[in-house]
Request: fold
Amino acid sequence: MKRIEPGSRLSKAVVANGFVYISGLTAREKVQDVAAQTTDILAQIDGYLAAAGTDKSRLVMCNIWLVDIGTFNTMNGAWEAWVDPKNPPARATVESRLGGQGNLVEISAIALAPTA
Reply:
């Protein structure tokens, strides 16, 4: 097992049993709109996948939480510009109250780890 950026409460990502599990991520800049926050989070996911030795083409599942489901299409614009169209993961998107002031979207991901 490999922990990426472990902290006292959680690791940002964990590689275990052939998978990479990425914790729920929020944007670094909370003053941005949903599209910009989504783009920032997806860039973070790219970074954690790279740290684990894999990439978005190996995503299996993503979960997305939006403060306002009315921003679904805006979030999807950023998503569709990023996702590998030949290898889209399974995905769920729901409306939810999020912790932390200014968070409009949160995304977690599961990907296949690199093969040995």
